[in-house]
Amino acid sequence: MLRSVEPFRVGLCQVPAYPLERAEENWTAILAALDEAGRQGAQLVGLPECSYPAYYVRDERPYDRPGVRPFAEVSAALAAKCRQWGYWLAAGLAVPHPDGSLTNSGLVFDPAGEIRGRYDKSFLWHFDARWFRRGREFPVWDAGFARFGVLICADARQPEVARALAVNGAEVILDLTAWVAWGRTMAELSTTQCEYLVPVRAFENGVWIAAADRYGPEGTSLVYAGRSSVYDPEGVTRFCAPADVGTTVVFEIEPMRVERPARRPGLYRRLTEPTASLPVMELLGQAVVPPAESRRVAVVPSRPAFDPEAVLAAYLDQREQDADLVVIGGAPAAEGWEAALPRLEAAVRERGGSVLFGVAGDGGRPRQTAVLVHPGGIVVHEASHGRGIATGETLPPVVATPAGRVGILCGEEGYVPEVARILMLEGAEVLAWTHFADAPMTEQVARARSDENRVYTAVAGPETGIIVAPHGAPMTIAPRGSGLAMAAQVNPAMTRWKDMAPGTNALTDRIPEAYGVLTA
Known about the structure:
Keywords: Hydrolase. It holds the Pfam family CN_hydrolase. It is a single chain. The chain is α/β, with parallel strands linked by helices and about 525 residues long. The protein has helices spanning about 25-40, 70-85, 130, 160-165, 190-205, 280-285, 310-320, 340-350, 415-425, 440-455, and strands at about 10-15, 45-50, 90-95, 100-110, 115-120, 140, 145-150, 170-175, 210-215, 215-220, 220-225, 230, 235-240, 245-255, 295-300, 325-330, 355-360, 365-375, 375-380, 400, 405-410, 430-435, 455-460, 465-470, 475, 485-490, 500, 505. A six-stranded mixed β-sheet has the order 5-4-3-2-1-14. A six-stranded mixed β-sheet has the order 6-7-8-9-12-13, with helices on one face. A six-stranded mixed β-sheet has the order 19-18-17-16-15-26, with helices on one face. α4 (about 160-165) packs parallel to α5 (about 190-205). It starts with 7 loop residues before the first strand and ends in a 15-residue tail after the last strand.
């Protein structure tokens, strides 16, 4: 929640993309956008990623190129704009350093034109790593009306970055971005970041996120999505600019109170362990034959109350259709529900496959429990995170099943990015999520969990279910309210491929030593 009881105005400069050879035209557009933000009364302004001199800088010395203004001149002019208009500015710039290195940074100026600090992009995308030095810190600035942090473009693909900013006290995050896009027309350009990744970062952290993007082509192959956006702490898109025009947007942000499952830093030690020591690394080193790894997963919406006969019938029905894992939504259960387990266990031992379901009970303390029945036995997991329930003391396990290595998610555990992340680090190939509510953001969260971890996610709730591929695309969705089970073919071999782009890996490009704030 924002400390201030007064709204404030954030400005997003959606400037055109120019290649390095057109740096002067670029600079003119930047100054015009900054003036427009000032005229509209912005108090906090964002310039997109590497607004100057360009995003595709080609080497570590872009300021040595003809027609590019010296960095000192650029930063002095930006400081002057802050003094002129009296706003805070986070400027996306390629920043040179005395040691000859270059960072892809958000340079932060206060209204007096003083440089208050810098955020350096930490999750470098594709050719970023050829000339930019990786950042390892997650600073937050106090502007008086709000505390804000900065992330840059692909940083939103790594849940640790926004989470670290929120834990460090950010109430608002400026996303300075150059969203590489695709679309059938220039007006339809879009990206997974604005569709679900950035909204989920706002939702899971309970913060506002304001994203300033470039638009149009830079050179012959890079084209940016535009769509500079504002997302509220519920993950709702409050504003989204067009894809194909320049604009300076000033949006009024108001305080919002939201509740999220409480973090439990003592359970997150795995996040800071060296990558080479993680269980998933041993798994990724194993040879696999993809055609031999084909599996089938089904999702089944739950009944209004736990009915063991309905669970058994759903499992048997989907097993008849070759499902190796059946994920059933959670439901309230009366005391004594455990008496149904021996019959379910016997059926699974006889028929094979596996089934996961959720039960919510009281028994003196409200709790939510996920139960996985597989040929090797029964795993009972009490939700480690959730509002209004007594929580268990351990994170969910990863279990070897006929569908592959399954990481269990129970209820609101799916909304806590650390939980799914640790399951991936433990070697999960499928996140099986039994949920007790069909909240508006559940589908987007499921897509984000798959995308950021490069695993399958299968979630079922009372009204619907969805199965998501490792790159975040839905594979099947149960029509809401239909009660229908839906299934999809999955291949755990695909989860061994953690690359997002050349030189960019969801696993090995994490920075465990920088995530200590998440476990403190």
